[in-house]
Design a protein that fits this description.
The structure is a homoheptamer. By secondary structure, the first copy, chain A, is mostly beta strands. Chain A has strands at about 5, 10-15, 25, 35-45, 45-50, 55, 65-70, 75, 80-85, 90-94. Chain A has a six-stranded antiparallel sheet with strand order 8-9-2-4-7-10, with no helix packed on it. β8 (about 75) of chain A pairs antiparallel with β3 of chain F, so a sheet runs across the interface.
């Protein structure tokens, strides 16, 4: 992966909603705010706090994650679409 | 449970309002802002403060909690509906 | 009391405005923002600051307090109505 | 005084504007935002900062103060009207 | 001076705009936001930061200062008009 | 380069979108918020946190970066157009 | 210079846009937000952070700087027009 996201940003490859994942996780059709499933392909070094501490990201490359559908910025690398989000837009590792 | 919520997020399974719980707790019908009852099924590691301190969640898996009805994001895992909220949306352990 | 409020939240039992309390304290009829009198029935462990310090609540169970009338969330426990507020919504111990 | 204000709150007894105070201080009739004169009858322990430090109030019981006219919450104790304000609403000790 | 301003507040006596001050400083007639010239007659002890540090004011009694025209609160002491502003409303010592 | 940006600002030379970069990175045509590609030509010393710590920029001169299209301020130096952005407007190094 | 700006304020003398400066720097005619060129004639001691640290300004008297055109407050000293801005309104030293 050639993209190195800055700060607490994470590059995500969106995953097609499957009928049934290996882990048996479905995403709701009618949720108030439908989260999206994706795979982490790159993660930044983490945000730096006011105290000068770097807070390392909780996610790592390869993690499958749920994130807010309307978060982040689209980008295309080598013909594939990715999304750059802040880690705070990621709800959970699944 | 296959979901690991990030930061101070908590995964909650909503509980049906019962006529009378074992603990005798009712939720009001006509409250200004009606809280919901639920069970914690997963909790994140906690938010990281500007000082670089991780604040562990006060709730733990299995706790019955009251939370704001319109908080969080719906998600479905193994055919069951859950809610991912921030711990600050949880009012109390009951 | 079966409710354990989180963070800096406090559970309050509203007190009927009496003609004259033992302490002789009246609440105004026509105030800009009329405070309510109540009794603390449960208090959280306190908020955690960015420095990772837990700020213990100033109020304790049994304290009679004044609080903003429109603060907090109603809840019913064992058939009795309570209010869950943040300690910052409490004006004074009386 | 039976009221113990919380945090950085202060209980003030409003003073009638006199023609001439002993200190010769007048309040303007036509000011943009007319401050009010009053006497401190109770003061809280002070606000707690994010660093966990308690900042003691600068005012003490008996001080005559100027404060914003539309600040705070009215309350009646033993038949007398008081005002509960935050210390930050107090402009000066006079 | 009988007024002791709280925190980072400063009491200012407005100076009449002169044709030419001893220091040769004019205030513009048509500026976007016209600053006012005045003399500091009292200064508070300074604001207390979240870390519990008191930040002493940079201005002292007697300083001539420029400040935002619409800042602060008018007050009259011994028949003279003053203005109470926060030090952050003061642009410069002249 | 004669410009020394202040704080966490970065001077960027916009790059023409190429059909195929050496790294094979394309920018999407129809993205919600289309990021721009550019080259860092100058970087500030970094922002200073409330704790007095200088947070050095992650980018350095020569880095190719993605940044928000509508960020920053245009400036012309020696007849060439540049953009001055805050480092937080830069999404990733590519 | 008789003006001592407070905190992180800086006094700037606007420079006429020249056809070609000695450093060959032009300012764009049609930029989204056109920066202005000027010379620093006075700088404050710097802002004080919540931790009680004084952050010294990066600019010094004599520096030529780019700043936001609509920033700050106009003032006239000895018949010359100046601008008082916060250092954060200054984009770069040129």
């Amino acid at each position: 992966m050639k993209i190195k996201p800055l700060s607490d940003r994470v590059v995500i490859e969106a995953l097609e909603a499957e009928d049934k994942t290996s882990g048996g996780i479905y995403l709701p059709e009618t949720a108030k705010e439908k989260p999206q499933m994706g795979k982490v392909v790159a993660a930044g070094a983490g945000r730096v706090t006011d105290a000068g501490e770097t807070v390392k990201p909780e996610v790592k490359v390869g993690d499958k994650v749920l994130y807010g559908k309307y978060s982040g910025t689209d980008v295309t690398v080598d013909g594939k679409d990715y999304l750059i989000v802040r880690e705070s837009d990621i709800l959970a590792i699944i």
